[in-house]
Amino acid sequence: MTLKPLALLALAAALCACSGSVETSGQSTTEPEVEPDPEGLCTDWASASCETFKGCCAAGSSYDAFDCEKTLSGSCLDALASEAVHAGIVVFDQAAAEECFAPMTGCSASFDPQGDQLAACRNMVSGHRPAGAGCSSSPDCARPATGYAYCWGGLAGNGGVCANVVESSDGKCGFSTDTSTLSVCPADSFCDLANLAPPPVGGPPSEIEYAFEADCKPYLSAGEACIAKGQDQYFILQCKKGLYCQIDADVPEQSVCAAQLSAGAICMGFFADECQEGLSCDPDTSTCSGVLADTPFCYPPPVCGNGSCEANETLASCPADCGYCGDGTCGLDEMDWCADDCGYCGDDYCSSDEDEVSCPADCGYCGDGVCSPDETDWCSDDCGLCGDGVCQPGEDASCPADCGAACVTCGELITNGGDTSQLCANGMPSSVDLYTALIDCVCTGACAALCGDNVCAGANVTAECQTCVLDTAAGCGNEFNECANDI
Is 290 exposed, middle or buried (0-12, 13-18, 19+ CB in 10 A)? Predict the structure, then answer.
């Protein structure tokens, strides 16, 4: 599961709803009298939250408390910009930070503040840039007297401008370039971005990029359509608590709000709110489960021999999974590439457990008296030279001086011509036998009448003779094919 500490800065949460007023506690602009302590706050928050997660692992899995506290505390300090706080670059509100980082409950390691907690998260770190100034992130912006600051990137996310976020009082949500105010919908309603008011005709580009206005609509009830087609894309609308948007992949417009699924129900796993509160979609079973199967701080027992060196396996406990090339053990993931551990004598590779005595075929050296396969072309000491009177391995037909003239097959002879004395005498039948059978058929056999005076006398071959030689039924076609296939 991906942690979302920076959901504090997410636009979606700001535009969809705020449970309660955006005017939250800890909004005093008075500088704190004591030294700010973001490190202590994050350590306490991570420790309390991780204590909750101890009971969230599936049966047979173990819990990694150190990883939990390391991850959560680091995410908290990143969100608080602790280094910038101590350097005096940003303004830090300890009270707002404590309200924001209330210990997490349940088995969800996702940090997704809402309502007053969201407003506190927005206000715990602020900068000095006024509303309307450019920004890279929300902590660049100065905190307003009411509400909170937000770095609004426009509907297309092209670039940021500091905006003061206020709760809408007229049923409209949007951003005004005149006041640099971002109006968000009150509790139990959402900003319907599928029905944006059209931009002004002939207005400046910034009006199209940043300014917008839409209606705040109540959360949808069961059976209401929850996907709407905007100008150029689909929008998922917000269902009431206890419901989720049941997607119709074939006809998206027919997707409706439906009751969240109970434990054991088949789920898709696309949306976090698909299963009832306290449940999640188990990716292994595709059912709603009471335990988060993908909780990041839980780890399954190791399985030695599955080809993966898991976090709690070592070379000593499982060499098959955690071994390295050259450790003398052929691991499952080494079979195709590690010749040192998985090689064999005769594979042309001298592995770590082979030498010139145990495996001269792989480890022999030039001059050891053994002509290894990889020495035939270059090591005359072991494999000799053509002309030394010894037919060494690899010479054969390439060195007739040592190994005799190379023989030819019946197919090679009738294709390229040559001396019949060069025909290979080995094989059953031999090339000599195949050639003799063909000539007998042509000269004295089935084709003698058409070919005898020509082929056997060395004259030109007539078309009638060729036809007869290739005829497998009444000529010498069978003998010709057997000779031709002898290559």
Answer: middle
**Any bridge partners for residue 151, and if so which?**
162
Q: Is 18 left (phi over 0), alpha (psi -120 to 50) or beta?
A: beta
The tens digit of pLDDT for each residue in 110-146 reads: 777 887 888 899 899 999 999 999 999 888 999 998 8
How much is the mean pLDDT over the chain?
A: 80
On the CB side of 15, how many CA atoms lie within 13 Å of its CA? 21
Q: Which residues contact 167 (CB under 8 A, 6 or more apart)?
A: 18, 21, 22, 147, 183, 184, 185, 186
Question: Where does 119-238 show beta strands of DSSP type E?
Answer: 125-126, 134-135, 148-152, 160-167, 172-176, 181-184, 189-191, 212-218, 227-229, 234-236
Measured CA to CA, the distance from residue 10 to residue 121 in angstroms comes to: 11
pLDDT in tens, 350-393: 776 677 777 777 777 787 777 766 666 777 777 767 767 676 65
Nearest to 455 by CA among 445, 471, 483: 445
Which is it for the CA torsion 33, 37, 42, 44, positive or negative?
negative
Domain borders along the chain are: 5-218, 314-343, 345-406, 410-484
Is 123:148 a contact under the CB 8 Å cutoff? yes
Alpha-carbon separation of residue 4 from 109, 149, 213, 304 (angstroms): 8, 20, 28, 33
pLDDT tens sequence across 38-78? 999 999 999 999 988 888 887 778 889 999 999 999 999 99
Pairwise CA distance, residues 27 & 116, whole Å: 11
Helix (H, G, I), strand (E, B) or coil at 294: coil
Nearest to residue 135, comparing CAs of 191, 78, 182?
182
Distance CA 26, CA 62 (A): 39
121 with 95: CB under 8 angstroms?
A: no
Given a cut of 70, the residues of the chain with pLDDT beneath it are: 1-34, 231, 291-295, 310-312, 331-337, 352-353, 372-376, 384, 387, 389, 391-398, 400-401, 404-405, 453-455, 457-459
What's the pLDDT score for residue 486?
85
